[in-house]
Design a protein that fits this description.
By secondary structure, the protein is an alpha/beta fold. The protein has two domains: about 20-265, Rossmann fold (3-Layer(aba) Sandwich), CATH 3.40.50; about 265-320. It has nine helices and nine strands. The chain has helices at about 30-40, 55-65, 95-115, 160-175, 195-215, 225-230, 250-260, 265-280, 290-310, and strands spanning about 20-25, 45, 75-80, 80-85, 120-125, 130-135, 150-155, 180-185, 220. The chain has a five-stranded parallel beta sheet with strand order 2-1-5-8-9. The protein has a two-stranded antiparallel sheet with strand order 3-4. The chain has a two-stranded antiparallel sheet with strand order 6-7. It is globular. The relative contact order is 0.14.
């Protein structure tokens, strides 16, 4: 019995191998898929310059990274005991402005390095709701709970976003002509804006992705938003504490479809071995000096070396 309407994914060619360098950037959902790729030992970078929510913020980070832009301590604002910048996620804030500037500039340089060598940029857009600084008239990434009168909320049209994102992507392709662009819309609803505004926001993002892909070569749209809304149309795939973010089961199903669409068969064949090693690393050995413990350690070492031989490089044990 067929219980759902199936969403077909486009042909992703060439598919990702363990030799490729994918970069996942954008909303927190990019971290969900990118994090699983990183865990599976792909040479993945995940939001090197922090999470972004709207297309303008995503474009700004790309442009700032590639232009070598440097932020000064005096550019940061004090909010709730930390120094923050509206262009960046709170993860890059600092206890003092010098620390915040140093952390932010280091993140931008890392993002620049990853963008210049990326084979694929997976860019996930979260919302079309934009907050603009009143003093500079510039769209921001994060308001950081700063006074509301510093910002103005709006819902720009697709042409507005396209102008920002197209410019940034042209800059990226000038320094990295080979990079493939993969656009997605985050399935996470921004319910704080209300159900109606959230739907209008997502509609703008979907249209924006269509416009970018139509005008940009070597670009593809992965219908993850549509997959969640059509095939996973059930709250059992959502976290029960908020009913907004997908739970582990939901993310796993998305990743399985992503893997089928975007990952090469030879890479997919190696992933179960990596998963087995992850489980072994998570196994707690009680009697570390026993014969069984030595046997288990030897088995784990053999599997590790086997995977490294297939990868042609050392495993990142910090990620495992």
């Amino acid at each position: 019995m067929k219980l759902t309407t199936e969403v077909s994914f486009p042909d992703f060619s060439p598919k990702l191998t363990y030799a490729d360098r994918p970069v996942f950037a954008g909303s927190c959902f990019a971290g969900e898929i990118g994090g699983r790729m990183e865990r599976m030992q792909f040479r993945t970078a995940v939001n090197p310059a922090g999470i972004t929510y709207n297309p303008c913020a995503a474009a700004l980070l790309i442009s700032s990274a590639l232009s070598g832009k440097t932020y000064l301590p005096e550019d940061f604002l004090y909010a709730a005991g930390r120094y923050v910048h509206p262009d960046f996620h709170s993860a890059l804030s600092g206890a003092d402005p010098d620390a915040a500037a140093a952390r932010t500039n280091a993140a931008l340089r890392e993002y620049e390095t990853q963008l210049r060598s990326a084979d694929v940029l997976f860019l996930t857009l979260g919302t079309a709701v934009v907050f603009t600084r009143v003093d500079t008239e510039q769209p921001v990434n994060n308001c950081h709970k700063l006074p509301a009168d510093l910002f103005r909320q709006s819902l720009p049209d697709e042409d507005y976003f396209s102008a920002h994102l197209t410019k940034a992507l042209k800059e990226l392709r000038r320094v990295n002509p080979k990079v493939k662009l993969c656009l997605t819309v985050s399935p996470v609803r921004h319910t704080r804006h209300g159900a109606v505004l959230n739907q209008r926001s997502k509609a703008r993002l979907i249209r924006l992705c269509e416009m970018i892909c139509d005008r940009s070569e070597n670009s593809v749209y992965l219908p993850i938003y549509e997959f969640v809304n059509d095939e996973l149309r059930d709250y059992r795939f959502y976290r029960q504490d908020d009913l907004i973010h997908l739970n582990e089961a939901g993310i796993n199903l998305i990743f399985e479809r992503f893997k089928a669409a975007a990952i090469a068969p030879e890479a997919s064949a190696l992933m179960p071995k990596v998963e087995r090693l992850l489980r072994m690393n998570g196994h707690r050995v009680v009697l570390t000096d026993s014969a069984e413990a030595e046997k288990f350690a030897a088995k784990k070492e053999r599997l590790s070396k086997e995977i490294e031989a297939e990868l042609g490089r050392k495993l990142r044990f910090g990620s495992v």
